[in-house]
Amino acid sequence: MSEHHHHDHCHNGAAGHDSIFGSKTELQFSILAGSFLLVGFLLSFIPGVSTWVPLIIYVASFFFGGFYALKEAAGSLVKGRFDIDFLMIAAALGAASLGEWAEGALLLFLFSLGHALEHSAMDKARKSISALSDLSPKTAFVKRAEGVEEILIEELRIDDIVIVKPDSKIPADGVVVKGSGAVNQSPITGESIPVDKVPLDSTGVNHIDINDVNAENRVFAGTINGSAELHIRVLKLSADSTLSRLIKLVSDTKAKKSRTQRFTDEVQIHYVPGVLALVAILLCAFLFIDESFSESFYRAMAVLVAASPCALAISTPSAVLSGIARGARGGVLFKGGGPLEELGGLRAIAFDKTGTLTEGKPRLTSVTALNESSEDEVLLLAAAVERHSNHPIAAAIVRAADERTDRPLTRVSEVTSVQGHGLSALVDGSRVLIGNISFFDDLSEDVRKLALGKESEGNTTILIKKDDHPIGIITVMDTPRPEAAETISRLRKLGIKRMVMLSGDNQQVADSVAGQIGMSEAWGGLLPEQKLDSIAALLKREEHVAMVGDGVNDAPAMAKSSVGIAMGAAGSDVALETADVALMSDKLSSLPFAIGLSRQSHRVIKQNLWISLGMVAILVPLTILDVASIGFAVVGHEGSTLLVVFNALRLLNYQYKA
Ligand SMILES: Nc1ncnc2c1ncn2[C@@H]1O[C@H](COP(=O)(O)OP(=O)(O)OP(=O)(O)O)[C@@H](O)[C@H]1O
Ligand SMILES: [Zn+2]
């Protein structure tokens, strides 16, 4: 990741000091500038040394001190912008033109030193992100016909079988096919407790989509194998692995900017010309008050340095970068400064039920046969159709049917799914409908009562109709996630005053789950578009609402909310792409950490604004009134810039305390 040497300079703009001139060179140049300045200064006191000797040495100091500033200034000028670098060079050249070479060289030296330090501090935050890529091993042991071969991970192909030794890093995203044991997934998901993995028999299966593989069979590149040897079938190329995409998303500079970022950008657009105008006026001071031009010039330059908005410009980007880097290490991916700053300020969160607050793995609780059919018949027919659905309810029915009977499969065709209701299909020539009560509007009073009774016990209730006759009722029940109740109470303690469950399931089930995890509001029976309306309604009342989901069928609602949060993003491509904030683990418990980090980032950004604006507010009057010299202004200016950056770096060490 060494090509990530892109520096935000104090104006967010021009590309940084790339390639061979890394930030190390920048620091060396600055030190050279300082050394030449010192030598030149000392030589000027030695009698007998001709005056042009120190002059030549000062010119060398100018060169090294002004090199990067000139590069930056030129880059911005091409885009039609004046920036702080331009101002600095103007000031230094102005001093030189008045014969004050030492002053000019000092200005450039301090400026370049401040910026070199600032850039290496920013690099520290960036390295924290690129360190993610070191998580993945460089090579993998792959099984070939001739034996085991060690190859580069870039050369791994889909369906290769790699052998992962105990206590070593897993080289690819894939499915365990042999061996079982615990895997430490904390590098990707932030989960501190290792997760048990068991093999999945995939012999003879041609194509496996990693999104369909259960968590207990699935492993990610960059996670750490425990004490067992695992054989893994590769399901993703190295470049497409969850880790690679995580790194790509984290270092994506085009990600959503935060409001503060837009504010500071805006300020700078109006501010720099304002400063230039003020400086122009101050340059003319000698016309109105009794002083020489050089005195006016010095004052103007000091004001210019004092007023330069370097610290302001870097205050937000540095905090955003550090906050995002810290989040990524904790298994939380913020897509840019926008979500990072906004999440902590939220007071309302909507949750999807299935798979988010619950496990998303419902169990069959009852089968009721109606009208002369048998329970097995009902279950089998339902399972035959549900085999074509990937809804969690379908999985429960299919599993239960497989356990009970092994009758040959019936012929199923024309399966269509009706969003939020159920399925319709042709089975051996009969029209079969499977779905919730609201799917059927012509139920007899008896059947309806029976089904409603089951719902009131907290069951998800599914009716099966064959050729327009109800033949049975199947009920399933999902269990709340073990960490859900605790997370909800933590969120409440964090000041999230409104938490709402949105569910396509019936109201009784929604209420029952909400009751078990201590949530007060549950809105059930929602069709997908009604979930969108619910978000809109919440947005109207609460202004900002986050939506937590698994990204499977709630992506539109997540997109509509202020901050869309996806869980289990490590296992789902959709979730990783659509969310503003992705919780890499499939655990709700990283949500309080994410909110805590977001709030801390927000605090740091605010502190940084105070520091940067405060310094300008102090220095500008002092320089105008001739109380502070230009050297003082440079020290104050660069000092505040560095302070802001180091304050931001504190975020890298953020710890969530429950
Ligand atoms: N394949 C299916 N088989 C049987 N019933 C279904 C099926 N798909 C949907 N349903 C019925 O429609 C209801 C709503 O489904 P939908 O997919 O909109 O919500 P969900 O994802 O199950 O729940 P939640 O909104 O809580 O996440 C389900 O509770 C179920 O009663
Ligand atoms: Zn600066």
UniProtKB/TrEMBL annotation:
Subcellular location per UniProt equals: Cell membrane; Membrane
What SUPFAM superfamilies has UniProt attached to this entry?
Calcium ATPase, transduction domain A, Calcium ATPase, transmembrane domain M, HAD-like
What domain of life does the native source organism fall in?
A: Bacteria
GO CC terms for this protein? Answer: plasma membrane
P-type ATPase A domain boundaries: 135-250
Q: List the EC numbers from the record.
A: 7.2.2.12
PROSITE patterns, from UniProt?
Answer: ATPASE_E1_E2
The keyword Metal-binding is assigned to this record: yes
Which reaction equation describes what this protein catalyses? Zn(2+)(in) + ATP + H2O = Zn(2+)(out) + ADP + phosphate + H(+)
Which UniProt keyword terms apply here? Answer: ATP-binding, Cell membrane, Membrane, Metal-binding, Nucleotide-binding, Translocase, Transmembrane, Transmembrane helix
Q: Cell membrane: present as a keyword of the record?
A: yes
| One example GO MF annotation | ATP hydrolysis activity
Annotated Pfam families: E1-E2_ATPase, Hydrolase
Q: Where are the transmembrane segments?
A: 27-46, 52-70, 269-289, 301-325, 609-635
Name the principal localization, coarsely classed: membrane
NCBIfam families, alphabetically? ATPase-IB2_Cd, ATPase-IB_hvy, ATPase_P-type
Family that this chain belongs to: Belongs to the cation transport ATPase (P-type) (TC 3.A.3) family. Type IB subfamily.
How is this protein named in the record?
P-type Zn(2+) transporter
**Record organism:** Arcticibacter pallidicorallinus
